[in-house]
Amino acid sequence: MMAPLMLPSVQWRGDRIARLNLLAAAAMLAIASLLLILFQWYSLQTSFQRNLRIQADMLAPAAALALRQDNPLAAQQLLAPLAAAPHVQQALLYSPYGAPFARYARSGSDAAPAAPRAGMQTDYLGGHAALLQTLPGGGALYLRASLAPLYLSLAQFSAFTLLVCLCAFGLTVLMVRRTRAAAQHAENHLHYLAHVDPVTQLPNRHEFNDALAYALARADRQDSSVGLLLLDLDNFKVVNDTLGHHCGDQLLKLVSERLVAILRSTDIICRIGGDEFVVIVEPADDASEMASVARKILAVLAEPFALEGHQLYVSASIGVSLYPFDAQDVATLTRNADTAMYHAKHQGKNRYAVFQSEMELRAQRRLRMEANLRRALQNEELYLHYQPQIDLRSGRIVGVEALIRWHCREMGQLSPSEFIPVAEESGIIVDLGRWVLQSACRQAAAWCKAGLLDSLEHVAVNLSACQARDPGLMDDIHAILHETQLPHGLLELEITEGVLMDNVHANVELMRRLQDTGIHLSIDDFGTGYSSMSYLKRLPIDQLKIDRSFVHDLPGEGEAIVTAIIAMAHSLHLKVVAEGVETLQQVEFLRKAGCDNAQGFFFARPMTAAQLTALLLERRDWSTRTILPA
């Protein structure tokens, strides 16, 4: 099973951004530190020069007095206290004639300046600053101080600033690393959500697409093949509906664990949504190897699953396609496997099917049919045929069944057995069924007004599974009956046995509501489903229709089953209709067995409303055709 990994480009991009952030932070700290040091240097220098000027200003009055009094001793005593100022290296008092009058020097090697310039002079290379200030009344005072204290203060400040800068940079590195770790964790989590199915921990659809594209590219480089199996769990919805979605998720997890256990470590297993899984097999030598893998999957899923005290049996329909034989790209290969899977499902489920080109043609035809079916109602391509039901005792027409027909402008005449399943799968059957019910009721109402339904007990219309689940069904029926003014008792709704048992409690409630309105109810295709006798005796129904598969075996193998159905129905006070009657021998057997009504080609094929109108006007009696000649 493929483990989803962090994409290298994403991680490299994140590391690069982190490094750039650190470099930017270091540059900003360095610039800030340099600016602080320069500002400190300017401040120290200004303060140093100001102090030197203050000292000169303090000495100037006494020095001028000593010059006026021509007292060198007093001048020398005035300069002597400068020894307490460690930064002052030399002090000179010049007479008005420019000759040295008094002198102080910290070191004997300090020579007197030859010709000092007036004002403040700073020699950064020499490491000193000098100030020559003229005195009132003539003469000048010269002070020279060392810059060493200034340099020392600046060095201390710079060291402290750099230490603070390094600490700040260290904190920045720590914060960037923590931020990067949090971002990495978030990226990993987002990648997990984007690439891993949270229920089964398998790669999801996004990861599957990447893995399959990579597998096909590798197959091209190595001149090998790739097999794809798409499997869909059969009737998984029943588990969710009966045990809840939590149990459904647990079942998916158990299924994924079994798949991982039996397949090779090189095989890639993904859950692409709902109850659909895919397996990428590479290299796949041929279709026989893929068929072997499919059989292995079916076998391991056949074992029961223990889930919260329940023992569940799960089967799957599997579609197989092979690259590069069945497709040349990811999308086509996946679509072909999906087509093969639906073919297996339509063949009875719990099996696999290897993709064939004919399947694609059927799938395309189905898509065309669905697209045209959606337009058929607006294009008036649909119409009804009616097949009479004959009373086997009196030979009279006692009912008719409305049967839908479709002549597509693009695809020609289509059989109901072909387009009705498409309508049910696509959901169009609800609108289609509403149109059939409305059209049949309008026609029946027209016959009723013409006085042609005096011998008829009902007009039958089939009710699909989707219609039975439609919450607006009762409102539609009431609205149609109100519009057409058809007596409720003339309408009969036929529900197949399979639809009835799909959700017994809900359907029983629906049938009671229908019966309360006076509508007749019939179970169609009886004997082909799995009706429980305990339910059957409580169903609010009026009639059973024996499926044509049993009638076809009359007389012969079907006699026992048909006889039992008729006897059981009569014991429950239900009428019995046999459909698919085609021979006089079948009619004779059914009549003797006590069957009430029959319909089939023996009496009449489905016909248009105009043809049936003519037949009703004829008031034909079929009693002579229901008895074998002596």
From TrEMBL:
Pfam families attached to this UniProt entry: CHASE8, EAL, GGDEF
Transmembrane feature ranges: 20-42, 150-176
UniProt protein name: EAL domain-containing protein
CDD domains in alphabetical order: EAL (cd01948), GGDEF (cd01949)
Record-level Gene Ontology MF annotations: cyclic-guanylate-specific phosphodiesterase activity
Recorded coiled-coil stretches: none
GO biological process: cellular response to nitric oxide
Gene3D superfamilies linked: 3.30.70.270, EAL domain
Domain (EAL): residue spans on this chain: 366-620
Source superkingdom: Bacteria
Catalysed reactions, semicolon-separated: 3',3'-c-di-GMP + H2O = 5'-phosphoguanylyl(3'->5')guanosine + H(+)
Keywords: Membrane, Transmembrane, Transmembrane helix
Domain GGDEF: 224-357
